[in-house]
Amino acid sequence: MTDTFPRLMLAHAKQRPNAPALREKEYGIWQTWTWQHLREQVRALASGLAQAGLQPGQHLIVVGDNRPRLYATMLAAQSLGAVPVPLYQDAVAAEFVFPVTNAEVAFAVVEDQEQVDKLLEVREQCPALARIWFDDPRGLRKYDEPGLDSLDNLAAAGQAHAASHPGFLEAAIEKTRTTDVAAMFFTSGTTGNPKGVVHTHASLIDRAGAGARFDKLGSAEEVLAYLPPAWIGQNCFSYAQWLVCGYVVNCPESGATVTIDLKEIGPTYYFAPPRVFEGLLTSVMIRMEDASALKKALFHRCMALARRIGPTLMDGQPVGLLDRLKYTLGDLAIYGPLRNTLGFSRVRVAYTAGEAIGPDLFTFYRSIGINLKQLYGSTETAVFVCLQPDHEARADTVGVPIEGVQIKLADNGEILVKSGGLLKEYYKNPAATAKVLTADGWYRTSDAGFIDGHGHLKIIDRVKDVGRLKGGANDGAMFAPKYVENKLKFFPHIKEAVAFGDGREKVCAFVNIDVEAVGNWAEKRNLPYAGYADLSQKPEVQELIRQCVEQVNADLAQDDKLAGSQISRFLVLHKELDADDGEMTRTRKVKRGFINDKYQVLVEALYAGKSEQFIETVVKFEDGRTGSVSATLQIIDTQTFPAVRRAA
User: Fold this and answer.
1) Which Pfam family is one of those matched by this entry (predicted)?
2) Of the residues 429, 462, 495, the one at which a domain ends
C-alpha cells in the first residue's frame, strides 16, 4: 500500500534499490544516492529523531536549500508520524519567529551556519525550540550552544539504535495513515502573518499523481531542484511527484552554479516561476548585445521566423513546406544551440506558475521548441488544479481542470475549486479556514476568472485587486493591476512594476529597472553610473523605460476591456523592491498595499501632476543592519492611445 510518502520510498527501495534517487553536486562532482541508500539514511535519521524525542504529530522545522539529507530528514519525520515544516532559507531571523512559535516547534534541522545563526538569534523568543541539527558543519566547530548538534551525530546515534532494533523503521511506517498530516507550508503572507497550510499524505499524493498522469511522467525523468523547498511548487515537483514517480532529483551545489548545473543535467521535466524565465531571456538578450553585427542579424531574422511559425509547430498544426525547411535550418543554426545554452536541450515538459507570464515571453520559449506550459494552483490546492495539454498551450489561459478537479464561478467571478488536493485546514486558524472552505467543500481561491469557449481557465487578477477607474475619460473602466504589471515585466529592462489606479481617474506605475540588463545597455553607450540609484535616474534610462511603457499602452489599446488601464505617468524607483524590506514576499510577489502605504508620498506625487519628488527610504541590509537611501525621482508623462474598437 503506497498511500504515504514513506511507503512510496520503501516501495522504490524494494523494487529498484540500485536506481538513482537523488544527486548532489559537491566540489564540482555529482554524487548519487540510490533508493537503497536513501532508505538507510531515512532509517538512521528516523531512529535518531525518535531517540531525541520527536513524537507523532509534532512539527519539525527544516530550513535550507535542496539537499539530499534534508529530503531524507523530511521522510524520517513523516515515518514517525511527525510533520516537517519547510521554511524559506533566505528569510531573515525575525521571519522565523511566527512559524516556530505558531507551530510550537521543539526540533529544527537546518543546512548550515547561516541558518543556525538565525535560529540562535530568535531562540529567546521561541522558548520551545530545544534541539537544532545542522547538515553542513563548516564554521560551526567552536559553537557551544545547548541542544545544537550535527546531523552526522544524529544519524550515528540512529544507526546504533537501528542496529539493535532492525524492524524499527518499517514498524513506524506501518503505523502511518494516508489521512495523517504530511507537511505544513506557510503562505507568503502578502497581508498580515503567514498562515500554516496543513496537507495530508492523501491530498499531496492525490495531486502529485494526477499531475504525473496528465503529462505521462515516469521514473526516467530528470529534475533540477533549485527553488526554495518551502515553496509548495518546488516541493510538489521535487518531493511529492519525485516519490510518486520515482524519478531522479538533482540538487545544485549552490545558487551560483544553477545555470551550469542546468546544462550538465539537462532536465527532462522543468518547473520555474516566470521571473526565472524572464532572467534567462534577459541573459540571452544581453549576450546578443555583445555579438557581431552578422550574428545579431542572423539571430533576429531566425527569431522573426520562430515567432511566426514556432508556436504553430509546437501545437502540432500544419506549416508550409518552405517555412518548415527554414525552421529546420534555424534550429540547426540558432534554436538548438540556444536551447542547449539555456540548459533545455532535453526538456520534454516545462511548466511555469506562481504569477502570470507575459505573452511575449511565453511565445519566445515555445517558438524555439521548448514545450513551456502554464499551470494553475496554490498552496491550498496542492498546486495541481489546471494544466495545459500538449498542443493547447496559450499565453492567456492556465489550462483545463485535470483529473479529480471541479471548478465553478461565484457570482462575483471568483474561482471556486473542489478536488482531493485541498488543504485540511489553516493551522490554529479556524476563522481563516472557514473563510476559504465552504460548508460543501469548495475552496475559495480569491482569483477572478472564467472558463473560455475551449474549456480553458482564464485568470484576470486577484478578486480584491480588480478595480475600476473613477472619473475622467475612462470612468468605470476595468483595472487589473497584475495584468498591466506583467506586460511591463516582459521587457528585459524592467524587473518589477507596481500599478495603481483603482478608484482614481488614471493609471500610474512604479518601475524597477533590471540593473544587469540596463547596466549592460548603459555600458554600450558609454553612460557612466554609480550603482542602482544613480543608474535608475539617468535621463537616458528614463527615456528607455518610457518607450517600454508606451509600447505597453499601445498593446492595451487593442484590448476592449483593459484599454482604460493604459499608464499615464510613471516613475523609476530609486531602490529595488526587496523581501527584506517587506515590499515583496519570499516568492517575489509584490505587496501592493504595503508599497502603496510605504511610498504614499510618491503615489500622491504621481496623481498631483508633479514632475519630481524627493524620497528617503529606510533599507535593511543582509547582515541585519539598516540604512537609508534618498533621491529626487523624476515623474514621466507617457502617451496613451485611443481604444481600438473591434468589428462585431
Assistant:
1) AMP-binding
2) 462
Do 246 and 279 fall into the same domain? Answer: no
**Chain position carrying cell 523494487:** 15
Asked if residue 530 has pLDDT above 70, the reply is yes
Tell me: the pLDDT tens digits for 43-71?
999 999 999 999 999 999 999 999 999 99
Q: What tens digit of pLDDT does each residue of 487-512 get?
A: 898 788 999 999 999 999 999 999 99
The DSSP bridge pattern shows strands 372-376 and 349-352 to be: parallel
Give the residue from 216, 248, 272 where a domain finishes.
272
Strand order in the sheet with 349-352: 269-272, 349-352, 372-376, 386-387, 400-401
What DSSP designation does 590 have? B
d(CA 86, CA 74) in angstroms, rounded, equals: 9
Q: How many CB atoms lie within 10 A of CB 25?
A: 18
Same domain, residue pair 604 and 524? yes
* Total domains in the fold of the chain: 3
Q: Which pLDDT score, from 0 to 100, does residue 623 have?
A: 64
Give the domain range for residue 376: 274-462
In a domain, 107, yes or no: yes
Q: Of the ranges 407-416, 432-441, 466-475, which is most confident?
A: 432-441
Q: Is residue 647 included in any domain, yes or no?
A: no
The C-alpha R_g of the chain, in whole angstroms, comes to 25
Please indicate, yes or no, if residue 367 is contained in any of the structural domains: yes
Same domain, 480 and 609: yes
pLDDT in tens, 111-164: 999 999 999 999 999 999 999 999 999 999 999 999 999 999 999 999 999 999
Question: Residue type for 191, please?
Answer: T
Are residues 264 and 329 located together in one domain of the fold? no
Residue 648 scores a pLDDT above 50: no
CB hemisphere CA count around 83 (13 angstroms): 24
Q: Higher-confidence residue: 466 or 387?
A: 387
Nearest Cα residue to 271 out of 375, 363, 388:
375
CA distances from 546 to 26, 534, 540 (A): 46, 17, 10
Contact 340, 263 (CB under 8 A): yes
In the prediction, which pLDDT does 491 show?
Answer: 85
Q: Is the CB of residue 80 less than 8 Å from the CB of residue 58? A: no
Phi, psi at 582, each rounded to 5°: 80, 5
Whole-prediction pTM: 0.81
* Residue 644 falls inside a structural domain: no
> For residue 550, what is the domain's CATH number?
3.30.300.30
How far apart, in whole angstroms, are the C-alpha atoms of residue 375 and residue 208?
A: 13
Task: Count other C-beta atoms under 10 Å from residue 536's C-beta.
Answer: 25
Q: What is the 3-state secondary structure (H, E, C) of 467-512?
A: EECCCCCCCCCEECHHHHHHHHHCCCCEEEEEEECCCCCCEEEEEE
For residue 252, the number of C-alpha atoms closer than 13 Å in the C-beta half-sphere is: 20
- Tell me the pLDDT tens digit for each residue of 322-331: 999 999 999 9
Cα maximum dimension of the chain: 80
How many CB atoms neighbour CB 551 within 10 A?
Answer: 14
